[in-house]
UniProtKB/TrEMBL annotation:
<feature type="signal peptide">
    <location>
        <begin position="1"/>
        <end position="29"/>
    </location>
</feature>
<feature type="domain" description="Fibronectin type-III">
    <location>
        <begin position="378"/>
        <end position="463"/>
    </location>
</feature>
<feature type="domain" description="Fibronectin type-III">
    <location>
        <begin position="119"/>
        <end position="207"/>
    </location>
</feature>
<dbReference type="InterPro" id="IPR036116">
    <property type="entry name" value="FN3_sf"/>
</dbReference>
<dbReference type="Pfam" id="PF00041">
    <property type="entry name" value="fn3"/>
</dbReference>
<feature type="domain" description="Fibronectin type-III">
    <location>
        <begin position="32"/>
        <end position="116"/>
    </location>
</feature>
<dbReference type="InterPro" id="IPR003961">
    <property type="entry name" value="FN3_dom"/>
</dbReference>
<protein>
    <submittedName>
        <fullName>Fibronectin type III domain-containing protein 7 isoform X4</fullName>
    </submittedName>
</protein>
<feature type="domain" description="Fibronectin type-III">
    <location>
        <begin position="293"/>
        <end position="377"/>
    </location>
</feature>
<keyword id="KW-0732">Signal</keyword>
<dbReference type="InterPro" id="IPR013783">
    <property type="entry name" value="Ig-like_fold"/>
</dbReference>
Length: 652
């Protein structure tokens, strides 16, 4: 018996006996044995006929012959009964018997006719459903009907038997997944049964029951279990969606399907299989996986301090949770069935934002994590300090998120700015008597400048006079004058040296300062004060007061026409110039360096002279405020000696 592949129909072949064809024996010259007489000849198998005869004394064997008009088949047997094999089914044969002994063989017995029975049907069996087996066969020669029976292969239970004139038969109401034995034979017009065929066939298994589906949202896999079925060799679990088909195969009663897609609805079914085929699919179980992570996430901060997080809607998403975690570890979240959430934010923070979708299956996979950095905070404790008429120093406390500070002073047309990583700035080259709008902007590389920082107004002070002139009026009195400074209402002039200080307050553009020491270097400071009290300290180059006027001025005759003027030099080094004013002219002399006298020659006698010895300024200017003395130069008497002192005059 040979079977086709499992699950498909298979053919069953009957078992046929062997035949032996013998050559006729040559008769011996001795006396032949007696001729046998056939009692009966009959067929029980489609390829053989059995013959019975009376035993012949002395015979050692018998030769059986079957002829159908076309072929002759002979068979040697030892005794009665004997069987001729290798015959054709449903064929009429002439049967004869010869006895054989040591002396030869007899003549053929009187013939007896016998007909072989019908051939066994060749069966093709299959199980189209778990409770049925289909038996099919080809037509059998000379057959007018068929008998088919079925029973469990283990012998338990009842036997079903059906007669039919067709060439197929279906047995129903069978047990699923059970091995059955099928027998079939044909019969002829006389009702004589032919050979039978035997096959084993298993019914296909029933569909699995009690299916349970467990979904692992983190791993995106489904574990499917069911109650095992009788006669099932293996099981196939299928997960079908609109775009994909996944499956797993097992001999157990549980199986795991991996690589499920998020946001997808699957129909889960289980098939049981054996060598007869597969069961019908079970009623499919619906499985909704977790939704996919929301995409197209956008983050906006408008106005500052308010973060708006929006995303796209996703399939199978029942609601959403947006998480916002700041870089200091604080985390907040919002639940919504919409596609947007709003959060409060603070300046100078980086926020990490993730959005999940949820349904009954669980949480969506983690999508992209977004980060958003808010603008750096604005300095709030700005303290501008005027350090000069054109310079302001500004300091503030560091603020969160700032990598750089931009400080700008704007007067409407002009912008003065400085950039620094330190929380301090000095703005130089500012215009005096100008109102500036000062703003400190914080800057970060990610977000740029925070343009919402507030401004402060400051006015850097009255303008310093463009020019200042210091004039020595007397040895202890000087006059300081200047051009009017814009925005200044009051001026304070200060001359300061190691010997002391002289100060003057005025609303005018000049001031007299006394108690000036001669021959001393002074620092001249002019303070311009506005009506609101803003003060500009205007420092100018140092001023050196003139050398002191000499003391002890005396005149000596050097001959009839010569005069030597002598004096006592004041402290410090100075150059002097001597002038004699008379009615006949002005006579001048200058001493050599380091000397405290000089000579005037060819001076007329008999005249009264006004004599003034004055220090000469570094600029070469001769000072005229030193005391003047009057001397009379006579023409009589000795040509040597002092000149008569007549008195002194005040400096003119």
């Amino acid at each position: 018996m040979s079977n086709r592949m499992a699950g498909g129909p298979k053919k069953c072949w009957p078992l046929i006996g062997f035949s032996l064809i013998c050559l006729k024996m040559v008769a011996s010259a001795k006396t032949a044995p007696e001729i046998p007489t056939i009692d009966q000849a009959y067929s029980k198998i489609s390829n053989s006929i059995t013959v019975e005869w009376a035993t012949v004394p002395g015979a050692t064997g018998y030769l059986l012959t079957a002829e159908d008009g076309d072929t002759v088949i002979e068979t040697m047997v030892a005794n009665s009964p004997g069987t001729v094999t290798g015959l054709k089914a449903a064929t009429l044969y002439q049967i004869t018997v010869r006895s054989i002994s040591a002396t030869g063989r007899s003549q053929a017995s009187p013939p007896k006719q016998a007909k072989t029975v019908l051939a066994a049907p060749i069966l093709e069996v299959s199980s189209p459903s778990p409770d049925s087996i289909l038996v099919q066969w080809e037509a059998v020669y000379m057959a007018i009907g068929f008998s088919v029976s079925i029973m469990r292969a283990n012998g338990l239970g009842r036997i079903w038997k059906e007669n039919t004139t067709n060439t197929s038969l279906t047995f129903t109401s069978l047990e699923a997944g059970t091995l059955y034995t099928i027998k079939a034979y044909a019969w002829n017009a006389n009702g004589t049964p032919g050979d039978d065929s035997t096959c084993n066939q298993r019914t296909s298994p029933p569909a699995p029951a009690n299916i349970r589906v467990s979904f692992d949202s983190g791993a995106l896999k489904a574990s499917v279990s069911w109650a095992p079925r009788e006669g099932a060799f293996n099981y196939t679990v299928m997960a079908l969606s609109d775009s994909s088909e996944l499956s797993c195969r097992t001999t157990l009663s549980a199986c795991t399907i991996s690589s499920l897609q998020c946001g997808t609805e699957y129909l889960i079914s289980v098939l049981a299989s054996n060598d007869a085929g597969s069961s019908k699919s079970t009623s499919a179980e619906a499985l909704k996986t977790v939704a996919c992570a929301p995409g197209r996430v956008t983050i906006q901060e408008d106005p500052p301090g308010h973060l708006s997080v929006a995303w796209s809607d996703v399939d199978l998403g029942d609601y959403y949770v947006a998480f916002v975690k700041s870089d200091d570890g604080l985390e907040v979240h919002c639940n919504t069935s919409l596609t947007q959430c709003n959060f409060l934010s603070e300046c100078g923070f980086t926020y990490f934002i993730s959005v999940f979708a949820y349904n009954k299956a669980g949480q969506s996979p983690l999508g992209d994590v977004f980060n958003y950095t808010t603008a750096p905070c604005c300095p709030t404790d700005i303290n501008p300090v005027l350090v000069s008429s054109d310079r302001v120093e500004i300091v503030w406390s560091p603020v969160r998120g700032a990598e750089l500070y931009e400080t700008k002073a704007v007067d409407g047309f002009t912008v003065v700015e400085c950039n620094d990583t330190a929380p301090a700035c000095t703005l130089s080259a500012l215009e005096c008597d100008t109102k500036y709008n000062i703003t400190v902007y914080s800057f970060s590389e990610v977000r740029g400048s925070n343009m919402s920082c507030t401004s402060q107004f400051i006015t850097t002070v009255p303008c310093c006079p463009a020019g200042l002139t210091v004039t020595q009026v007397t040895q202890s009195l000087i006059n300081v004058s200047w051009t009017v400074g814009t925005g200044a209402q009051t001026y304070v002039t200060v001359l300061e040296s190691h010997t002391g200080q002289s100060k003057c307050l005025t609303h005018q553009n000049q001031c007299l300062l006394g108690c000036i020491s001669c021959g001393v270097n002074y620092t001249v400071v002019l303070k311009a004060i506005s009506a609101t009290g803003l003060t500009a300290d205007c420092t100018y180059q140092s001023y050196s007061s003139s050398a002191c006027c000499p003391l002890g001025v005396k005149l000596y005759r050097l001959g009839p026409n010569g005069i030597r003027i002598y004096w006592q030099a004041s402290r410090g080094s100075a150059n002097y110039s001597t002038d004699l004013y008379g009615s006949k002219g002005i006579f001048t002399c200058a001493p050599s360096a380091g000397l405290s006298f000089c000579d005037v020659t060819e001076i007329p006698c008999g005249d009264v002279y006004t004599v003034m010895v004055s220090p000469v300024a570094e600029t070469g200017l001769k000072l005229t405020f030193c005391p003047k003395k009057i001397y009379s130069v006579t023409c009589s008497g000795s040509t040597l000696g002092m000149v008569i002192y007549r008195g002194k005059r005040n400096a003119e």
